[in-house]
Structure to design on (234 residues):
């Protein structure tokens, strides 16, 4: 497996939010703005990268019976580092994200990649996996945040500290529900449906083939079923 192959799988084929469906808690809770998505995504990417590298380095020394507690301790170390750093240098974003920065330590993506990949592969590939999954997660929550902020506030804020904000014309009436809890579920559901539709068309162009994330159980997947059966579900 090559470095680039491992990295790019997290950008589409195994993108955490839309394909493996991990990290749902921050995806639904903090994506009321693009700024929050960028801050959360970069913080999670840092923890994921450092945790994967450390777990891979220590994979031959960590006993199997205590591997999960060890993974949590490793993730907690780097989560504390990024928590204190953001509080010092990006305080506004840190305040907006609140408890969800400390909760990175138990994020399913962090522990999932440590258990499923980093503990079984060398450092080089573990770093590639972390970069791809981290950037894929960041991209996904930024897209959700962009849609919700644009529809709910009529603006897009990339970094409030610099005052950079783009607003739609005053005639636009924001839809308040999009920045509330139901808006997160609506946006995520629509994007998941879009992702599944794109994958369905990919499978139709190449009969009998569709990429399935290695960590997913495909017993209930209909994407590779015979065309006559799939067409009845479209």
């Amino acid at each position: 497996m090559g470095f680039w192959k491992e990295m790019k799988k997290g950008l589409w084929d195994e993108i955490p939010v839309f394909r493996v469906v991990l990290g749902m808690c921050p995806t639904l809770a903090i994506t009321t703005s693009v700024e929050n998505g960028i801050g959360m995504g970069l913080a999670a990417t840092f923890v994921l990268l450092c945790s994967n590298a450390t777990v891979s380095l220590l994979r031959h020394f960590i006993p199997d019976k205590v591997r999960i507690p060890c993974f949590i301790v490793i993730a907690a170390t780097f989560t504390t580092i990024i928590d204190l750093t953001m509080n010092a240098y990006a305080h506004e974003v840190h305040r907006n994200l609140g408890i969800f920065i400390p909760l990175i330590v138990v994020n399913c993506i962090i522990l999932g990649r440590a258990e499923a990949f980093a503990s079984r592969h060398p450092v080089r590939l573990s770093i590639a996996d972390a970069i791809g999954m981290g950037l894929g997660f960041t991209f996904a929550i930024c897209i959700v945040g962009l849609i919700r902020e644009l529809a709910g506030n009529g603006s897009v804020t990339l970094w409030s500290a610099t005052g950079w904000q783009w607003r739609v014309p005053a005639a636009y009436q924001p839809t308040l529900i999009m920045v509330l809890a139901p808006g997160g579920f609506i946006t995520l559901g629509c994007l998941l449906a879009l992702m599944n539709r794109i994958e369905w068309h990919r499978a139709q162009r190449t009969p009998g083939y569709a990429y399935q994330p290695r960590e997913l159980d495909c017993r209930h997947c209909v994407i590779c079923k015979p065309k006559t059966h799939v067409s009845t579900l479209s």
Observations:
- Confidence is low (pLDDT under 50) at residues 219-223, 225-234.
- The CA atoms of residues 11 and 136 lie 4 Å apart.
- The chain has one domain: 3-193.
